[in-house]
Design goal:
With 106 residues, this protein is mostly helical. It has one domain. It has four helices and no strands. The protein is globular and about 30 Å long.
Length: 106
């Protein structure tokens, strides 16, 4: 079970810092693929948690789109127009992975 509290304190700030909730072609500008976030000026952590949870693969946590889409292709990422995470050692990648693993383990 994914933790809303951990999402709100750890993952949501990463999504905001990385600009994922921006308008235009980003996820805060409406649905982009299968992932939508509340816009920067009107944050709704519960909505964002529900949307991010849909991007988690319980059977293969490291293959979750929430991790692979922003990860560089050469590091094992999947196609996505914006690649803020260069490697799986990136602290933001590790924090999101930890949130997923904590949820899968509970």
């Amino acid at each position: 079970m994914l933790s809303f509290t951990e999402f709100e304190s750890t993952v949501e700030p990463i999504l905001v810092r990385q600009g994922c909730d921006a308008g235009g072609d980003c996820h805060g500008g409406g649905i982009r693929g299968t992932f939508q976030l509340s816009p920067a000026g009107a944050k709704n952590a519960h909505f964002d948690f529900a949307q991010a949870s849909l991007q988690v693969s319980v059977s293969s946590p490291a293959s979750s789109p929430l991790l692979t889409k922003p990860l560089a292709l050469q590091a094992g990422g999947t196609p996505h127009s914006y690649k803020p995470l260069a490697t799986t050692a990136d602290p933001d990648y590790q924090a999101i992975l930890r949130w997923i693993l904590d949820g899968v383990a509970s």
